[in-house]
Amino acid sequence: MRRLGFTTVLLLAGTLFAVSRVDVEFGSVPEKVSVGDTIAYRIKLTFPDNPIRWAFDSLFAPYTIGLKFLGMSVETEAAQRGDSVVGTTSLSLKFTPTRSGHLVVKDGYLRLFHILQVDTAAGDSIIAADTVVIKYPGFEVYARSHFGFPDTGVFALWLGSFVVILIVFGGIAKIVSAEKRKPLKVERKVSPEEKALAELEVVSPARQSVRDVAETVSRILREYINARWQVPALSMASEEILKGLEDRGCSPHRLMTLEKILSECDDIRFAGKYVETQEIEKLVEMAKDFVRE
User: Fold this and answer.
1) Residue 131 located in a structural domain
2) Domain termination residue (choose one: 144, 177, 203)
3) Is the same domain home to 121 and 243?
């Protein structure tokens, strides 16, 4: 709680009458509040005589920053002290924060009238009175928002960060969801026949030497046989290849075709046999027929 302290009022007398003395005590207000709370700032006036002889008003409404003035309530008590009556009047100035952050109530003034003479014939109208002006000190409070954030700027920062995080995670979730909905790409396995035919299609006697063509055709067929019949043809002689295919039930016609191809390739590769371009082209076609059969 912020203690505003006890003090004695400054008195400003009128020019025609003596000055009476009033003691003033200022209350305290909490240092921290929340938006929407009611803040009561109490001022206690102690009079040297009967309080009913005193009247007061506010010179102007309190000047505030971030606070709304709700009004003022009054409680008066009187007590007999010897032959005289003394009393107190408690004023309660009420405010409410309209925003969070540092809020201020500026210094204010109250004007009191000490009634000296009343004309009862004229309806208790005041004929003469002393005037007393009381200055009450202002105060500062720190208001929090209802969400627990100490300041609207900080709340905006937190809210903006939260929105950004939501957008980022929402974008990630959307991407993941879209990826899950995509059909799986199933790569079709290429058969040994398709692979061998694709490689034979690029063999060109016009761009390669006869020996290179024979080497390439022999390799392609041996790899095909290895994949198709699980015969390790790459490390076997031509006769061993034919025997292995025969054991695996290869048709006699295919065996005869393969024997011609391998024999021709071996003669070109190892014996240096010379063949015309038309013959090497026919050899390539025979290899394709063997694969297709």
Assistant:
1) yes
2) 144
3) no
In tens, the pLDDT along 102-143 reads: 889 888 888 777 776 666 665 555 555 667 788 888 889 888
pLDDT tens-digit map of 69-104: 888 888 888 777 777 777 788 888 899 998 888 889
What domain range is 93 assigned to? 2-144
Which residue, chain included where needed, has tokens 């692979």? 195
Number of structural domains the chain divides into: 2
Residue 220 domain-assigned?
A: yes
Within 13 Å, how many C-alpha atoms sit on residue 267's CB side? 11
Q: Specify whether 138 is located in the same domain as 198.
A: no
Question: H-helix or E-strand containing 21?
Answer: none
> Which bin fits 209, alpha (ψ -120 to 50), beta or left (φ > 0)?
beta
Same domain, 140 and 198: no
pLDDT of residue 59: 57
Determine, yes or no, domain membership for 154: no
The answer to whether the pTM exceeds 0.70 is no
Residue 66 lies in a domain: yes
Looking at the structure, tell me whether residues 15 and 99 fall in a common domain: yes
Residue 49 CB-half CA count within 13 A? 11
**Amino acid letter for position 83:** D
Query: What are the tokens at 59?
Result: 């010179």
Q: How many CB atoms lie within 10 A of CB 278?
A: 9
Taking CB atoms within 8 Å and a gap of at least 24, the contacts of 196-200 are 196/220, 196/221, 196/223, 196/224, 196/291, 197/288, 197/291, 197/292, 200/284, 200/287, 200/288, 200/291
> Angle of helix 238-247 relative to helix 210-229, nearest 10 degrees?
30
